[in-house]
Inverse folding.
């Protein structure tokens, strides 16, 4: 599941986390009892690999990342996603956060990255 967030500063060192216990904050009758845990869903990201091709396009050859373009006249918007690498449950809801680390690898900022609701079908 892609995670979308808007950082307040460039993200260099970051890890994505997911709150797997959203029934506490979002009414979800399918999962009345949840673990209450926040799970790390990405490795520590210190650099984003990229390749600059002959056609002037930049490719990120890592399946941890995804990109998507939308057109909202008169501008194109490019979205950059970090994928959740953990198994997900259909019918569940997840709340994502990105932890941004400083040069000493201490948490500097927690960035809310939104909620995701997975339908049953």
């Amino acid at each position: 599941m892609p995670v979308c967030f808007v950082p307040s500063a460039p993200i260099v060192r970051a890890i994505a986390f997911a709150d797997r216990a959203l029934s506490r904050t979002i009414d979800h009758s399918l999962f009345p009892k949840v673990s209450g845990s926040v799970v790390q869903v990405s490795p520590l990201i210190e650099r984003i690999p990229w390749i600059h091709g002959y056609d002037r396009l930049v490719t990120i050859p890592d399946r941890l990342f995804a990109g998507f373009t939308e057109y909202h006249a008169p501008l194109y918007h490019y979205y950059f996603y970090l994928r959740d690498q953990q198994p997900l449950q259909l019918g569940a809801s997840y709340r994502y956060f990105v932890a941004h680390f400083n040069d000493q690898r201490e948490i500097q900022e927690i960035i809310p990255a939104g909620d995701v609701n997975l339908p049953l079908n």
Observations:
- The CA atoms of residues 70 and 77 lie 5 Å apart.
- The mean pLDDT is 75.
